[in-house]
Design goal:
Low-confidence stretches: none
Structural class: alpha+beta
Order of helices and strands: HEHEEHE
Length: 112
């Protein structure tokens, strides 16, 4: 005779009670705040600039947009990074690319 036979009906209920309920993935309450940095830079510096931004910011580097300046050997660049990395990247650009002309930063995605 099995001494646990009277409790056999309780075991499935106990196992269900002991396991946690399934959880849905939790998203951040708002998207990360980003900054878009505007600048002009010479054509030969575009690839090193992108490499610097990727190396410093990693996944915090959102996007890079470039456009040519009419009649000039310079390119307009918009770098979008998450806010904590903006000052670090700005200082690295100022040090590594002294001919770059920074135009300011726009804050995007600020929490309400």
């Amino acid at each position: 005779m099995n001494p646990f036979a009277p409790f056999a009906s309780f075991v499935p209920a106990l196992l269900r009670a002991a396991s946690p309920p399934p959880r849905a993935p939790v998203a951040a309450p708002w998207p990360a705040q980003t900054r878009t940095m505007h600048m002009t830079i010479d054509v030969a510096s575009i690839t090193p600039l992108r490499q610097l931004a990727m190396r410093l910011c990693g996944k915090a580097f959102e996007f890079m947009r470039i456009a040519t300046c009419v009649g000039d050997a310079r390119i307009r660049v918009w770098l979008c990074v998450q806010t904590p990395f903006a000052d670090l990247l700005g200082a690295a650009i100022a040090q590594g690319f002294p001919k770059a002309r920074m135009r300011g930063q726009a804050v995007v995605g600020a929490p309400a």
